[in-house]
């Protein structure tokens, strides 16, 4: 993808709503392609790259969650915003665990939608800028993480494909090495909005990082819990 205009794929079966959203995204300077069903989106995403996916949840053919899962299974890390008429907290968790970055309930204010779009793109500019900068490889205790390729090798020689959230959380912790990072700070840097009813999802991601990189995940030395606050990353390997 060229470094020019950022591209958005909008998948919304309400054609009137799609036209209105698309026009406002274009006013923001974004290039927009609109589709109206799940299978068309899956096929399009196999052939084209985008900077942001805006997915309605209730789509003909297959829902937005499945569209998101399909691209994540192929290693596509493009950020995803879900739009849905369902505001149940369990649905939000389901969408974010499918690989989404944000979840906005209809009806929504256009200004809030555009603010969230800008926030997602800013976060990814931060991450991608860090990933292509000199020193984008993180090495600690026999582990090596390539933030640009979303790949890692661990101390035991195993190769890992990182999810975009695993990589972003690790980047946040590594930038603050030796300092405590609260769960709220992790959510703000990686997701940008307080969209979780609890912090358990962040905790689950930390557990996954421990399983990948700690010699003994049950007694971590690099991804340390600070009770009631958050986490601290120690590259050298402290005891908890």
Task: Give a nutshell description of this structure.
The chain has 240 residues and is α/β, with parallel strands linked by helices.
How would you describe this protein?
- By secondary structure, the protein is of the alpha/beta class.
- It folds into two domains: 7-130, Rossmann fold; 134-233, Winged helix-like DNA-binding domain superfamily/Winged helix DNA-binding domain (Arc Repressor Mutant, subunit A).
- Helices cover 41% and strands 20% of the residues.
- The chain has eight helices and twelve strands.
- The protein has helices at 15-27, 38-47, 64-73, 89-97, 110-132, 164-175, 183-190, 200-213; strands spanning 7-11, 31-35, 52-56, 80-84, 102-105, 137-140, 143-146, 151-153, 159-161, 180-182, 223-226, 230-233.
- A five-stranded parallel sheet has the order 2-1-3-4-5, with helices on both faces. Strands 6-7-8-9 form a four-stranded antiparallel sheet, with no helix packed on it. It has a three-stranded antiparallel sheet with strand order 10-12-11.
- Strand 3 (52-56), helix 3 and strand 4 form a beta-alpha-beta unit.
- Helix 2 (38-47) runs parallel beside helix 3 and helix 6 (164-175) packs across helix 8 (200-213).
- The longest helix is centred in the middle third of the chain and has 23 residues, at 110-132.
């Amino acid at each position: 993808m060229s470094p020019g205009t950022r591209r958005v794929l909008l998948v919304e079966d309400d054609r009137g709503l799609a036209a209105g959203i698309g026009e406002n995204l274009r006013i923001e300077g974004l290039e927009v392609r609109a589709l109206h069903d799940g299978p068309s989106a899956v096929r399009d995403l196999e052939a084209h790259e985008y900077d942001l996916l805006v997915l309605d949840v209730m789509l003909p053919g297959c829902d937005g969650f499945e569209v998101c899962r399909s691209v994540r299974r192929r290693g596509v890390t493009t950020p995803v915003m879900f739009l849905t008429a369902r505001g149940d907290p369990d649905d939000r968790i389901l969408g974010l665990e499918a690989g989404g970055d944000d979840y906005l309930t209809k009806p929504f204010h256009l200004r809030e939608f555009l603010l969230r779009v800008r926030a997602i793109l800013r976060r990814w500019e931060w991450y991608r800028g860090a990933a292509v900068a000199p020193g984008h490889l993180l090495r600690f205790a026999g582990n090596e993480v390539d933030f640009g390729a979303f790949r890692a090798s661990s101390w035991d020689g195993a190769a890992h494909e990182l999810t975009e959230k695993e990589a972003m959380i690790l980047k946040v912790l590594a930038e603050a090495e030796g300092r405590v990072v609260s769960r709220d700070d992790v959510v703000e840097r990686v997701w940008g909005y307080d969209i979780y009813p609890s912090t358990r999802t962040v905790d689950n991601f930390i557990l996954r990082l421990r399983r990948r990189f700690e010699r003994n995940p049950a007694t971590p030395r690099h991804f340390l819990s600070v009770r009631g606050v958050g986490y601290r990353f120690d590259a050298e390997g402290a005891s908890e």
